[in-house]
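TA notes, week 10

Several of you asked for a full example with nothing omitted. So below is the full record: structure tokens for the whole chain, then the designed sequence directly under it. When grading your own attempts, check the secondary structure regions first.
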């Protein structure tokens, strides 16, 4: 099969592009009501995209509105109906666009991360973690396959324990019986020392998480204490840059923040947290900080709904201890087209999500949501007025 560049909706013309996939090959079998198309190279194609062949086959069925069958052992993947290679190839490009390419950098370097029934792209190239289109029917199939895998893994673990467990338990019992009382006492002392050390480490980590910055902003953190400290250092670095460049150029500031984020090994969306943490403080209204940084935010967010949610999360982190300022900043971001109406209403309707910072506890989140109630009500009222005007 000839190899072509892996591409989604937009073709990749570069002849030296290193991401390649074979063209799809279908074979029509049967006739009448029993006519079907066999995807001859489904496994080879899926392998080049680092995805399961059954998932790709199911996507064909979802897009073409046809039933699918598969037998991985016999390498037989079937879509009911007669479909040309051109149509199947178009389906492949759609699949790549929706489930393979990173929404942030556009490279096919993603893997799935599934948590709480949500499927995310995690990109090995740029570090971005973006939600896939959860409205697509294929998501149901992906989630069901994950459940099956987990069930099989648990079953395999239980079987292995049954086979080896009896002999191991007997050996352990004999060894325990042969140990003297003094040995057991020493062992318990060692265990207690280990427990104390582990508890001490946990306390230190918790105390680091609870630290707040000089302007009253809660420390922004993503997953680990190390990430939080790196993010804090990046924020301080950009603060110094802004102090030295009060009349900054938007493009230069964006480039500086992105370089800082990449140098620290942080995730792609952390550039939003760096900017908001460095540029917004409790004098945000008096010093007109939102309008000042609108050009920078526009370049970073660019109408991306996921990035907009990270903007709200970052603002939550900064004003966790200043709930009076939070709704004002939210409204200013809306007025300056950084946040869309749907994004704010979605945030208001959600509970705690993957966007919410670990440092924002439930009490703080509820207070921030309550403080933003006038803004949310205003947006909902405006929305209902528009609908009534249309009628």
């Amino acid at each position: 099969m000839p190899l072509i560049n892996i591409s989604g909706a937009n073709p990749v013309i570069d002849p030296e592009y290193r991401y390649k996939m074979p063209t799809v090959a279908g074979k029509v079998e049967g006739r009448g009501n029993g006519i079907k198309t066999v995807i001859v190279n489904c496994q080879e194609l899926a392998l080049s995209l680092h995805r399961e062949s059954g998932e790709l086959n199911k996507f064909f069925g979802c897009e073409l509105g046809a039933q699918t069958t598969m037998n991985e052992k016999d390498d037989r993947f079937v879509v009911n109906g007669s479909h040309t290679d051109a149509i199947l190839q178009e389906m492949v490009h759609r699949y790549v666009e929706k489930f393979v390419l990173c929404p942030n950098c556009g490279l096919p370097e993603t893997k799935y991360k599934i948590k709480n029934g949500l499927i995310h792209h995690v990109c090995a190239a740029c570090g971005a973690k973006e939600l896939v289109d959860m409205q697509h029917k294929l998501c149901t199939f992906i989630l069901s396959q994950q459940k099956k895998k987990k069930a099989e893994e648990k079953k395999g673990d239980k079987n292995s324990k049954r086979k080896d467990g009896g002999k191991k338990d007997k050996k352990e019992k004999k060894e325990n019986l042969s140990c003297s009382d003094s040995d057991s006492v020493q062992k318990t002392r060692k265990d207690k020392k280990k427990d104390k050390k582990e508890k001490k480490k946990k306390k230190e980590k918790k105390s680091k998480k609870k630290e707040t910055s000089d302007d009253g902003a809660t420390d922004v953190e993503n997953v680990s204490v190390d990430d939080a400290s790196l993010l804090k250092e990046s924020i301080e670095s950009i603060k110094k840059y802004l102090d030295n460049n009060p009349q900054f150029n938007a493009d230069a500031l964006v480039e500086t923040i992105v370089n800082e984020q990449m140098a620290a090994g942080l995730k792609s969306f952390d550039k939003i947290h760096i900017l908001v943490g460095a540029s917004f403080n409790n004098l945000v209204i008096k010093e007109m900080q939102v309008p000042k940084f609108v050009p920078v935010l526009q370049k970073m967010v660019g109408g991306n709904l996921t990035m907009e949610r990270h903007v709200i999360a970052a603002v939550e982190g900064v004003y966790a201890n200043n709930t009076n300022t939070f709704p004002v900043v939210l409204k200013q971001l809306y007025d300056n087209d950084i946040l869309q109406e749907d994004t704010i209403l979605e945030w208001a309707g959600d509970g705690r999500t993957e966007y919410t910072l670990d440092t924002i506890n439930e009490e703080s989140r509820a207070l921030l949501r309550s403080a933003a109630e006038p803004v949310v009500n205003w947006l909902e009222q405006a929305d209902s007025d528009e609908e009534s005007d249309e009628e």
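The chain has 14 helices and nine strands. Use that as a sanity check on your answer.
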